[in-house]
């Protein structure tokens, strides 16, 4: 099978082109460091041909961990006999930045006898602003074919596919640009000369970007805009997803009313009602929030604002030993800690990368979202303002998210000040990508895929746990008395551990099972309350918590505990792999667990002190 490799600098539109050619849904965003691993997929229009997408890099002299991945795999691919061609994507609106890397790629391909096709992306932007570029002259100068395309609009893709089909059927030798022995210093000078001679004329694009930056990067207005955008991000999680959540809850309740009475076997009927609808169903209610969260973060990334937010955050993050580049992995951690840990590869400073690893597990990830939503809905009233756009529950969600972020900064600040400085830090350098209108279709598709992945990944664990919980809670008395079941016996053993938080054995069992994955907490409670409720409809889990006698202080203690404790086995595994230290992952698990318990006990006792 033939293989074609796709390389390019960050923000050149590489992942968008990859998705268009393969039909896959690789994450697309307008920020350096989004694509953090090698992806591959079969070309839809050319059978038996695989396209391999490498992480974006500015040169073949890697600095960050992400660039090391790209360069290592690129050099290895050039020795692969199945690799027939190399596609090098350049941003036609930023010619000089792209050409230096392109010349390096041409030089390496010349040494290995590989073909290179240069793809000039963003041609739609130049056409819209009536800016001309001499691609024919550039192609002659670098001795490589250049195909103008627009990955966003799809223009030029047919010409690219036609070229690939012809060259796959009629293989040729590598290029001969006379660069095989040219050092990087000369290539950089050549890139500048080529960009000046053949690149786009005019500064319309720069002026347009500068006008927006004058607002978003303003010393005062930019800060207000940043906090406003972040607040809307967290407000949207509750307020904007509420109709979809209500629809899911109503649909599950209606489905339960139809299916459960139709099952004649009592044990099977109880299992369907308690484990499936009360356990897994209670978890599914919160999936719309995952969709909304992913969509809003995607909007910020794809528009180019994320890089501005990173720049705004650099100075305050520096106080806590971090860098502006830490902002993106940390915010990505709001969706999931695993891709956030991978995204930390883009941080070139080893020390700041390590500190970012320590901060990411404290970010309020989407696995915590069902737990937060459940507890906030149980104890915070649904007071709204501005026609329902702003709500008290959304404010509570913002505060608990802010608490997690504050704890992350506190940890990194303490560690950075009390650990030996064994690394030579590099200066903070960040590219400001152009502002672009986000593509709605890719964002919706990515949000859907993220929600589906969350359900399938967490659903397997939740299903397994809920089955075990149901069996232990249902037998030996067939659900007549949950406290006298096998589960009750286990729960009473661990109850003293959670008694200082004002929690009974049911919540203790739910917390313990959540160490497999945080979201299991919701399914476990749903299953146990389903068994207790017998024939009642158990989908609205909020009402069951309110009726269970759980105090506000205990609810706050649970929020604090889940905000700090490292309770995800997958995150620990990836953390150990990326940091190359399983000891670090185990130490963080123990330290965050102990700190979470102590703070949760403190919050509960403060609540008692103030009569809450």
Q: Looking at the chains present, what oligomeric state does this protein adopt?
A: single chain
Strand order, main sheet: write it out.
2-3-1-4-5-6
Unreliable segments of 5+ consecutive residues: 28-32, 534-538
Mean pLDDT across the residues is: 82
Determine Rg (CA atoms, Å): 27 Å
- Shape assignment: elongated
Structural class, by secondary structure, is alpha/beta
How many angstroms separate the termini? Answer: 67 Å
Report the strand count: 8
Q: Classify the beta-strand content into a percent band.
A: 5-15%
Total domain count: 2
Largest sheet: 6 strands, mixed
Protein name: Ferrous iron transport protein B
InterPro entries: Fe2_transport_prot_B_C (IPR011640), FeoB_GTPase (IPR050860), G_FEOB_dom (IPR030389), Gate_dom (IPR011642), GTP-bd (IPR006073), P-loop_NTPase (IPR027417), Small_GTP-bd (IPR005225)
Transmembrane segments: 215-234, 275-300, 320-342, 354-380, 392-415, 454-475, 556-576, 588-610
Domain FeoB-type G: 1-170
Which descriptors would you attach to this protein?
transmembrane, Rossmann fold, elongated, Ferrous iron transport protein B, membrane, two-stranded antiparallel ribbon, 8 strands, alpha/beta, GTP-bd
Folded structure, characterized:
The chain has 612 residues and is of the alpha/beta class. It is built from 26 helices and eight strands. The protein has helices at residues 14-22, 65-78, 95-112, 123-128, 135-142, 157-169, 184-198, 204-216, 221-239, 242-259, 266-284, 287-303, 305-319, 327-332, 337-343, 350-359, 369-379, 392-417, 440-474, 486-498, 505-513, 520-533, 541-547, 552-564, 569-579, 582-609; strands at residues 2-8, 39-42, 49-53, 83-91, 115-121, 146-148, 384-385, 390-391. β4 (83-91), α3 and β5 (115-121) form a beta-alpha-beta unit. The radius of gyration is 27 Å and the shape is elongated. 49% of the residues are buried.
